[in-house]
Each structure stands twice: as C-alpha cells, then as structure tokens.
Specification:
Mean pLDDT: 81
Number of domains: 3
CATH topology of the largest domain: Alpha-Beta Plaits
Number of helices: 8
Distance between the termini: 41 Å
Low-confidence stretches: 263-267
Number of strands: 9
Oligomer: single chain
CATH superfamily of the largest domain: ACT domain
Order of helices and strands: HEHEEHEHHEHHEEHEE
Shape: flat
C-alpha cells in the first residue's frame, strides 16, 4: 500500500470519527424524545433526484412543525446519504420528536410528489426509545474502503445534514479541557447534567464553571516531548525545500526556513 492510500484511509477514518461524535452529541441531547427513521430511495437511481427529495422533505418539515394546531417545534433531525454495494443512493433521516403528526404529513406529501420513486420509501417508529438508533451512521462506525472511495468520487456532495446542538463545538472543546469528568465515553452527557444542575452556566458565548468540577491545572506538569517524525515526512519537507530553492534561485528574495517548516515566508 502506497503512502497516498495510507493518507486517504487516515483522513477518512478521522472524518468518520468526527461525524460519529456529532451524531452521538445530538442523540444525547434528544435521548428523552421519541424517535423514528425515514428512508427514501429514488427508483431512477439518480443522486440528483435524491438531493431534490431531501430539499423538499426539510422544506415541508420546517413548514408543518410550525403549525399551530398539531406542530412540534422540538423536532430535530440527523440525515445521511448512503450508497449500497450496487452504488444505489438512498437517504436515512432520523427524527427526534414529541408529536409525530407533522412527520407523517411530510412523509406522505413527499411520497405523493412524482420523483419516480415507488415502494422504496419507509417510515418506521422506534418501539423502545431507550435504545440508541445507530442505523443512520452504520457506514461511519464500520469502515469500508470501497465505499469511501465511491463517496470521494462525489466529494462535493454534502452527505450529512443535522440540527444544531445546544452547545457549540468550540465551547465543548473548552469544557473538555477544563472540567473534571467521571467517565470517558459519556463526557457530553455529563456536561448536559452539569448545565441542568447549574454547575455550568453558558450564556452569550461565555461559560461559568463551578469550582467543585474544575480541573486542577496549576499542579499539572507539562513535559516537552520531542515529536518523532517518520522518514517519509522528513523526505517531504526536504523535497519541499529543494523545490522552493529551485524556484527562487534566480530571485533576490530571501527564503526563511524554520526548523520544523510548515510554510515559507518571503521577505
């Protein structure tokens, strides 16, 4: 396996890990709500048709959930476009709700539109809302190289769409660094519990943390560790230096090269 393939796999796994974390954070916030899964598969097999279905679905959902009679403003969603082994595109939309009436209306409205999609649509409600509904992100939990290459072929497509979390990613990263946690895998749930208990207060992008749950960073010893770089990485740096030297050989510009160069400055 060449270095290019290794880099592709590493980046794909890193991206998948972020998407799984995004889903789990939203699920943690909405775990108390009811859940359902909507699936659409266009019979013509076209990705453009599927994108049109997704746009119409969310457009109608935003309209029906604001209905004064049977609307539901608590509705949140997480959607993912997938490909089957035969490269058939389809979409899974997981919805969190308290009232299912607007979801049923949207589903029936989209099915009635002539997209050329017939029996391949489904709406299923979860019988047990205590169980996690990870079917939507199964391709991100189980790495498949061929599938990742197929997705990369349509790299401009936005595969994932989801509702916003109540806490921004920047704030979550800050809390991960400054709060003491009892568990490793349920840190986001602990943050939500602290917010409900009042030990963490977030307002106007500012955070107040109670001293009882703050991480003690004063006595923390920071050791300077030397970063071990692979031979391939060093070869890339040397090759980059040679190319820049050749480029500016006849130029009067001075090249400033650092010990660990990430970019070059010209003065």
């Amino acid at each position: 396996m060449i270095q290019k393939d290794i880099d592709f796999i590493t980046n794909a796994k890193r991206k998948n890990k972020r998407i799984v974390a995004q889903y789990l954070a939203l699920y943690t916030e909405c775990s108390h709500l009811k859940k359902c899964l909507v699936t659409f598969t266009p019979a013509d097999g076209r990705l453009s048709t599927l994108i049109e279905i997704r746009q119409d679905f969310f457009k109608l959902l935003n309209r029906y959930k604001r209905n004064k009679k049977d609307g539901d403003l608590t509705i949140k969603y997480f959607s993912n476009i997938e490909f089957t082994k035969t490269s058939q595109p389809h979409i899974h939309i997981q919805l969190f709700f308290t009232n299912k009436a607007p979801i049923i209306k949207v589903f029936e409205s989209v099915v009635c539109i002539e997209y050329d999609n017939t029996h391949t649509n489904s709406l299923s409600f979860a019988n047990d809302n205590s169980k996690i509904f990870t079917y939507t992100i199964k391709n991100y939990l189980n790495f498949d190289l061929q599938l990742e290459k197929l997705k990369y072929h349509f790299k401009d497509l936005k595969y994932i769409t989801s509702s916003q979390k109540s806490i921004s990613n920047t704030m979550v990263k800050y809390l991960f660094r400054t709060v003491k946690f009892k568990t490793k895998n349920n840190r986001y749930k602990e943050i939500l519990n602290h917010i409900s208990n009042g030990t963490i207060v977030i307002k106007d992008n500012k955070c107040i943390i109670d001293d009882s749950i703050k991480l003690d960073t004063k006595n923390k010893i920071h050791k300077n560790k030397k970063v071990k770089r692979s031979k391939e990485h060093l070869y890339k740096i040397k090759d980059k230096i040679r190319r820049y030297k050749r480029k500016y050989k006849s130029s009067k510009k001075v090249i400033v090269i650092r010990k660990k160069p990430r970019f070059f400055e010209h003065t």
